[in-house]
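Team,

Forwarding the record for the chain on the shared tracking sheet. I've put the sequence and predicted structure together so nobody has to dig through attachments.
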Amino acid sequence: MKYTNDMKNRLKRVEGQVRGVLRMMEEEKDCKEVIYQLTAIRAALDKATAYIIGKNMEQCMLQQMEKGESADKVIQEAIQLLVKSR
């Protein structure tokens, strides 16, 4: 699978958020603020994961259809990846 700049940028934003949380911890910020940021990081990772799985499924389905094959297996694999990511 080709990882697009959009996919990479999503993870770079998460990386920045993690650095921000570490900085907050070093500055001994209130734990509630840290938890809010950690929750935002989790949500961003969930969205990035879903986006990557969706793009992968799209590419695989197109390949299957070009071969004249069913995309059922690709769909099942995508569902398993989504379930595993939770």
